[in-house]
Amino acid sequence: MPVEREAVTFTVTLLPVAQEKNSGTSNQGCPYLAMVPCNTRYVMEHTQVPFQKDVIGQDLFFSSNETISSGVSGPGPRTIVSEPIREVPGLYWVADFVTQEEHDRILSHFRGSIDNGTLTPEQLARRTVLHFNRRFIYGVNQLGAVGEDVNENPPFYTWMRDRLQNTDAGVEIVGEYPFEKGTFTCDQLTVNLYDYSKSRVSGIAPHVDAHAPFEDCILIVSLGSGTVMDFSHENDAQSRRPHRMGCTWRRAHSSSLVARRGTIGCTVLRRRKTDILSEFVPKLERGYRVSLTWRKGRTTAQQKEYVSLSIAL
């Protein structure tokens, strides 16, 4: 069986060496050949920016933030479109999920409620977290009971939950969506707040959401500043070059069973202040961002295939 060897390259440096004879000078002599071993994998990892894939949906960062492309005026519900992300099976996004007015009102609610002490946040490494309806207990990956040790549900809780479940009478989601109407009910909301005025660098380390306490589908509503989310697959030979998806304002993202089981590294926010969308456009400067993650707690035992996956991670 062949032995797998570490990829190694060498850096060659020519150094002038002084002659030891009396006739020599300090700046003359034969060159000295220096060969310094270098780990190619390490170099590629730390110079991946020039080789990384372009961001999926990067053009949306330059579109107007005031326009609802799929809005419908007059009688009947407003229609918004869900589209699958072909590069990441099981992942979908919905543009213009909330209106500009709804977006601004939600951001104002969180900023004001935290400043006046109405909400009790949990401080984690490089981000602030709020739990609603049910508390997710970090470290042990457990879900608390309804109404136990959580903040009071925000004003938008009911209508946003209904809209995500596609049961909102005023807004209808059309296109490919991870579940049918009435077949999925969210009962837990985690809000992550990233404030660069209070934290030098905000972000979340690579991870996969816990399988044991939650059902398959995860729904994320992105508000405020845009950012980039990375996805890497367990069988991807180019895992150092993950699929990079743009999270723009007023957009909903949903991850279903396929994406959760097949994606081993999901970095919601790499810990930095800027994102590179493409080598042809300027860097994206991050600002205040709010991410609303909606999930459903499990009512039955976790399946075996999830156990092995969770342990491996």
From TrEMBL:
Q: Where does this protein have coiled-coil stretches? A: none
Entries under InterPro entries matching the protein: AlkB-like_sf, ALKBH4
- Transmembrane regions listed in the UniProt entry: none
Q: Tell me a Gene Ontology molecular-function term this record carries.
A: demethylase activity
Q: Biological process GO terms, please?
A: demethylation
Q: Which protein, by its recorded name, is this?
A: 2OG-Fe(II) oxygenase superfamily
Q: What is the lineage of its organism?
A: Eukaryota, Discoba, Euglenozoa, Kinetoplastea, Metakinetoplastina
